[in-house]
Amino acid sequence: MPKRGDRTDPKTAALREDGTLNPSPEKVGDPKFQTGEFFDSRDLMQVRYEMLRRVSIDNLSVTQAAAEYGVSRPTYYQARSSFDESGLGGLVPKKRGPRGPHKLQGDILAFVEKQIVPGKPLRAREMARLIWQVFSVEIHPRTIERALGGKKTTQRATEPVQKKPLRG
């Protein structure tokens, strides 16, 4: 049987894939998590739920629980708030980072959409250069492709593009 934390362990792989693999299982000091039977310090949701349970049912202080489970007090309060709002699903970590093409909005998105006309190909790299010329905003070609529905190439209008005057 593969050891805990081993990359070939199916549970570790499943937790990693679900985004619930505890990045610091060694910080969990609760004795229940040391036996290796039911409680698993690698399972972030289980660790967070047990931490919340220890405070609300076992009357452990927030400071003690945070220390015992290897997290900060603000992390405890965030977990509590997420759990109160969404139940167990609230304990699943949220993906970090932007939630969409944050540079490709408003005027820039309207500009890109205006360039699309069936029959005239325009590659995303060329569109990125046009955006830089007109708006002085650098956007990766793949961002443009994703915003336009994942198409590797887009279509361009025949209207000439007006360039923004250089600031000096």
TrEMBL record:
Which species is the source of this protein? Sorangium cellulosum
Q: Which residues form a coiled coil?
A: none
Supply the name of the protein.
Insertion element IS150 protein InsJ-like helix-turn-helix domain-containing protein
- Region Disordered, annotated ranges: 1-35, 148-168
Provide the Insertion element IS150 protein InsJ-like helix-turn-helix domain boundaries.
Answer: 48-99
Q: Source organism lineage?
A: Bacteria, Pseudomonadati, Myxococcota, Polyangia, Polyangiales
Question: Basic and acidic residues compositional bias: what residue ranges?
Answer: 1-19
- Cited Pfam families: HTH_28
SUPFAM superfamilies membership: Homeodomain-like
**What InterPro entries does the annotation carry?**
Homeodomain-like_sf, InsJ-like_HTH
